[in-house]
Amino acid sequence: MVETRLTLARIVSPHSVAVIGASDDVGKFGGRVIHYLIKHGFPGRLVPINPNRASIRGLPAFPSIGAAGQVDVAILAVPVAHLLRQVEECAAAGVGACIVITGKLADAGPEGAALEAQILAVARNAGMRLVGPNCLGIFNMTDRAMLSSSLVLEAAEVKAGGIGMVSQSGALMGTLVSIGLHHGAGFSRCISVGNQADLELCDFLEYLVEDPATRVIALYIEGLKDPARFGPLLRRARAAGKPVLCVKAGRSAAGAQAARSHTASLAGSYAAFAALCRAEGAVLCEDPAVMVQAADALDRLPRLPAPGMGLAVVASSGGSTVTTADMLPAAGLRLAEMGEATRAEMRRWMPESHVHLPLDTGSFDDGTSEAGLAACVRAFLADPDIGAVVVPMTTQPAMAARAALFPGLCREGGRPVLFVMTAAEVGNAARDALRQADFPFYDRVSDALGVLRALEAEAEGRDRAALPPPARPPGIGHPPRLPAGALTEAEAKALAAAYGIPVTRGILARSVEEAILAAEAIGYPVVLKGVSRAVVHKSDLGLVKLNLPNAAALRAAYAALPDIRLEGVLVQEMARGEAELILGARWEPGFGPMVLVGAGGVLVELLRDVQLMPAPLRPEDAAAMLRRLALWPVLDGVRGRPALDVRAAVEALVRLSWLAADLGPRLIEMDLNPLLLRAAGRGAVAVDARATIGGESP
Amino acid sequence: MVETRLTLARIVSPHSVAVIGASDDVGKFGGRVIHYLIKHGFPGRLVPINPNRASIRGLPAFPSIGAAGQVDVAILAVPVAHLLRQVEECAAAGVGACIVITGKLADAGPEGAALEAQILAVARNAGMRLVGPNCLGIFNMTDRAMLSSSLVLEAAEVKAGGIGMVSQSGALMGTLVSIGLHHGAGFSRCISVGNQADLELCDFLEYLVEDPATRVIALYIEGLKDPARFGPLLRRARAAGKPVLCVKAGRSAAGAQAARSHTASLAGSYAAFAALCRAEGAVLCEDPAVMVQAADALDRLPRLPAPGMGLAVVASSGGSTVTTADMLPAAGLRLAEMGEATRAEMRRWMPESHVHLPLDTGSFDDGTSEAGLAACVRAFLADPDIGAVVVPMTTQPAMAARAALFPGLCREGGRPVLFVMTAAEVGNAARDALRQADFPFYDRVSDALGVLRALEAEAEGRDRAALPPPARPPGIGHPPRLPAGALTEAEAKALAAAYGIPVTRGILARSVEEAILAAEAIGYPVVLKGVSRAVVHKSDLGLVKLNLPNAAALRAAYAALPDIRLEGVLVQEMARGEAELILGARWEPGFGPMVLVGAGGVLVELLRDVQLMPAPLRPEDAAAMLRRLALWPVLDGVRGRPALDVRAAVEALVRLSWLAADLGPRLIEMDLNPLLLRAAGRGAVAVDARATIGGESP
What we know:
Two copies of one chain form a homodimer.
Chain A: H1 8-12, E1 16-20, H2 29-39, E2 45-49, E3 55-56, E4 59-60, E5 73-76, H3 80-92, E6 97-100, H4 110-126, E7 129-131, E8 137-140, E9 145-148, E10 160-167, H5 170-182, E11 187-192, H6 201-210, E12 216-221, H7 227-239, E13 244-248, H8 253-261, H9 270-280, E14 283-285, H10 288-300, E15 310-315, H11 318-327, H12 340-347, E16 359-360, H13 370-380, E17 386-393, H14 399-403, H15 405-413, E18 417-421, H16 428-436, H17 445-465, E19 485-486, H18 489-498, E20 506-509, H19 512-522, E21 526-531, E22 544-548, H20 551-559, E23 568-573, E24 579-588, E25 592-599, H21 603-607, E26 610-614, H22 619-628, H23 632-636, H24 646-663, E27 667-677, E28 684-686, E29 689-693
Parallel strand pairs in A: 1-2, 1-5, 5-6, 6-7, 10-11, 10-12, 12-13, 13-14, 15-16, 15-17, 17-18
Antiparallel strand pairs in A: 3-4, 8-9, 8-11, 19-29, 20-23, 21-22, 21-23, 24-25, 24-27, 25-26, 27-28, 27-29
Helix pairs in contact in A: 3-4, 5-10, 6-7, 10-17, 12-13, 19-20, 22-24
């Protein structure tokens, strides 16, 4: 490959920019691009290209790029029929990079894909980089280089700040910048990558990780071109102290299909992506509008002191504070348990009957006292269980003055204060006061709660980053030789046992007499299972006979096995437990080995109560996965039931994760289902196992 | 009681209004009240009361209310120390009603409550009505009577329209009106009821049901003074074709506590309130900001044709449509399954690969064609599975013109079109275009999805209203005589059996020999249960011995019963089933008899997967409750498992609901747990039952 002409930093911050098809008419793409460059004060050399005009917007125009002298970046928003020729001319003229706004390429079908490949080849041969096609370009707020036709640039001012963004949707990026600007957020660089023919999302993610102007990174992802790059970049961002937030398309089946047809990218497994984000401390959001507000909060507010803390809700309206408190549980948040010092402070201002959260300052003895409000918020921000304060302000007198108290209180307390201006236009003076103070606000309680959930995820990621790397547990033997294809239950269990995962004892038998000898060796009651490599769900075919108390029952069960070709029967101990888990492992193409744990048995299908993480795991990771299950209260001992052997479940999950890590892509998938979990101290045992192995035996 | 001087309609629409403590200073409450009355064009007689001024705002001022002539309504925002005297003067002067903005009465503790009682007595003796105290008054947009000091009245214009509101929080009401006005919504009358010393929420709800200017009713409720009035008023609203929406405080434990201390009202059981709303077709919202937008949608958009239909999502941004589609499942919504006619229309505009939902019009062959967009939306609005269309518009050229297409398409299609302007300020021209067209818009996809969920609840309520009233099932016997207090299992089962609910056969025995005789009569295997009126959770004490195969096992189990005083032992058939349900009934004070159904066994505690409804039920109601359970897929036959006997579960639930309705307040609570459900056609049976009876035997 030819050496590339330009670094990414120079593409985002070019010294000279040519606009192909520049125009005085802002109704045209080329007209808007040059208009926005001028309007937002592009400080470099600006070169309009238009064969029919001598000057555009007062700048000398050139008939072609070849006549324009050295140009770092050319912006092309030309009809698709002219695109190849224009790119060729740029390549010939020594342009460093083309930003191709033109669409209808790989996004429109095979014909467009062929053209995109041609253009890419032209660029690659010349060492010229491409952004797009089918993108909306780049907003560089730090250096005032608006290389884009996006209508969001109609805004009078696009504030510079710490948020860097990369997006596979240009229109969505424009919208998110608009939402951010409304809230007073500032941006460093925002890059729309479109079809990613050449430069892709991970290239710009890497650039933002290294970019000194960027403090927080927000990503809109439809599909990763090379998922293997993503995890290491998240680690580098974390090392650089830059939180990464993302919205990933394809959370729903319909969204996944639509993302595939848009920008022609494979959405990939959402669950695997989510697991990777959790493992690497990236914050996965569902709503893009919440993501940009959360990025702003991470840019301009203090971070949460630690994950898992509670919230204080305070305002001068009972209705507003109560409805906000009522919305917390569904948002995965909780009110704090206040400490005694905090209660003592509150008692100074209000009757004992009102000393609780949420705090309605209307109940203050002296009305909605400013001094009382400030004193209470100070107490909240020093309370050991209060991670953040939420202020859902309704219409009230002196809104702007009241709002203006919070930036100082927040700075002083060093914890986030989320100010919500719940009223619309009548709250604008309060909004302006906070913009003036460079302090974030929210327009909806639901937005603030979404942001808080993101802050919580960031704090969890920070916590996890402090842990040592996973360590291999002792006593892992050599995995047995593995045939390719579906393993029998006995083979799968032998594999699990080699990793120290307890499995039920079992003896393979070829006749009913062998089965009876096996049962005597194991001890009644036993389980009888028909063995066939061809059968995945043994129970569904009547191949499993449970709880056989004696030889007569065993004979009867043997005789009742269905009439299909069996490779033998497995006689097993009849194990019992208090709860059923499913443990699984699989190789996720692009993401690597993953393990999962969930509620087992019929609940697997019913609750979809499953946690997935990249392998290998630390014991802390495995324990955290178990705690996130809906089933957790059962494991922990619900309503007087005994706590179960969570340590044994953690141990099995960690060992399975090393099995997955060791086998790598050869382990297509493996399930231990169910793993029976007994009361604390009594262990766990896998009573069934399945696995599918790919490729060659090692 | 003295006859009251004024109807509610006249209080809301007074001919003459006195402002006690009127002032030229809008920084004071009395100054703001008179300012807003004048500013918004109050058409009646306006009387400032101020002993120190001859005129206020150019109007002749009176030294006292006694000097002011006949006055319909006096507004009091005076210090609490002067309140009693002012109310006495109003009563003496023949004022029809006082709106008391002054707070710190019952809301502030026992002293305030005593003063509130005094004021109420003064008013009652005179036949004068009270609104408040601790309220923010009344906005009457229909008749331009703004009887309030709320800052929301700073708005240049408060649009008249069909939304009537009653709120127990004045500040929240002001905020909701502000949000509504931003979105172009119009209001009829908004009433802040405060502490409800005299006139209460249900009084004004009744007024709005009858008010010709009100088409939709929105309520913010902290606690109902008289819950028994609420259900019948919801029925009257439905009969009048007026949807009722509410937010009820106390969904969370903390919210319930806070609501109690605010406005001094008991929050009551949130679950019972929610069940009543569902039964009567009222729409219960969680987020007040969503409620007001949903009320507006029900005022200005067509209704959903029927419940349970899918959605179409369409916009010119792939990112926006995909992320919107991804947000549907968590919001309880789904994309539609398009019919062939709709697909055929889409094929006219775009390649086959893009013919799916969500629709990205950027994939149109001719770009984002206006004709194509209109044609596709028309096809959507005629599709049998598309109930509504969501348009999440991002920044794009000609936003206002594009937005202006939708009011006409919506009117023409007769189904809701929810237009979301996802960008902030840069989308204001589109917002203005829609305000101009008197058409709702949303600023957040999450708001639009919340509104759609409310529209869905309204459609469900409409559907249910078309059903005939519940009919008593045949074969209900006389309930046995019931002792007060906790029933034994045998007594509770006899009660259930009298209503035709199948229960396990059981024989009470007093010795092991009697128990063996009983087991022989019933047939092995049997269950042995120790009977004690003092024990609620028999299993926890080891009083239940399952699956005893023969007399020896029965003897051993009998001997192993714990050493506590027993009233005997119950020998029962060992019943088996495929799933466990819990059925329950209770008397809910204020709301009446309720029945519940949920996942039984350990899942009760774990999933809190429970549905509650007022008794008695129709079979359709019982079936709908089962379908709403998380457990439903198990009942319906998940992954190749057999479907269970849902008809038997419906039958048992309906019969239990009649039991609850017949016993009324005597039935404190009753549980059938578990009710074992067998495969379809094989019935159900309650294997355990508990009940607590209050008061006298009939």
